[in-house]
């Protein structure tokens, strides 16, 4: 069964007067239910991750200031919106949803978080609408509980996973791979174990060629026993922030290739959805929904 972390708080965390493209978090599960890709039993609502697990990844002082809503105005501006208890609750539920997804991935091969992909959050900072790094928290949870010994994080969002790179820069058990727009946010990049910076306007064939030339070798060399996949759809030509030029068909083929690699090598994979900022919400929802559909076709 395809298992998907989803909670209504994913879509409605912001105070009045602050807009952000959160509607997709409601519409994706609705679309999948409408098309019969999933049933209501596929969706689960996560609890809040515990503080000890958060602090395997994030500095205690940063977490306590985030929890207590006492980050400085400058730190809040870096995040992109003012703190609230509801926003922090959203983050801790997303992080637990990704951890829970790992458990389902061990059972079913693949599992999803409708939200997540908060890869700009570093060990002691939040940035770019990210406050806690859900996949980093889950990766450290797996390592700490001896559920995995070698982890590969595949970040194919259009923006570099700078927070993830910083968190694991001295952790040899986690290999960070980010393929992202070279001239896009964040403008101060961190160093992943492997970065592939992409030129503006790169299109389907070149993008897919780079991915297909790279990923099998990474898996063969590092032999991960767990994979995290950040499947942002801000690589689309229609995306207003992305600067790349991929079609929906190529985005879907990207997902198919990643999932085929995981399934062929029997490596469980947890998927967080990451970014998507096309002007038409239907384009965002369709592209994200395709990721779920491809996984459903391959694994179930």
UniProtKB/TrEMBL annotation:
The keyword Hydrolase applies. It comes from the Bacteria. SUPFAM superfamilies: Arginase/deacetylase. Transmembrane segments: none annotated. It holds the Pfam family Hist_deacetyl. Keywords: Hydrolase. Residues 21-288 form the Histone deacetylase domain. InterPro entries: HDAC_classIV, HDACs, His_deacetylse_dom, His_deacetylse_dom_sf, Ureohydrolase_dom_sf. Belongs to the histone deacetylase family. PANTHER family: HISTONE DEACETYLASE 12, HISTONE DEACETYLASE HDAC1-RELATED. This is Histone deacetylase. The lineage of its organism: Bacteria, Pseudomonadati, Bacteroidota, Sphingobacteriia, Sphingobacteriales.
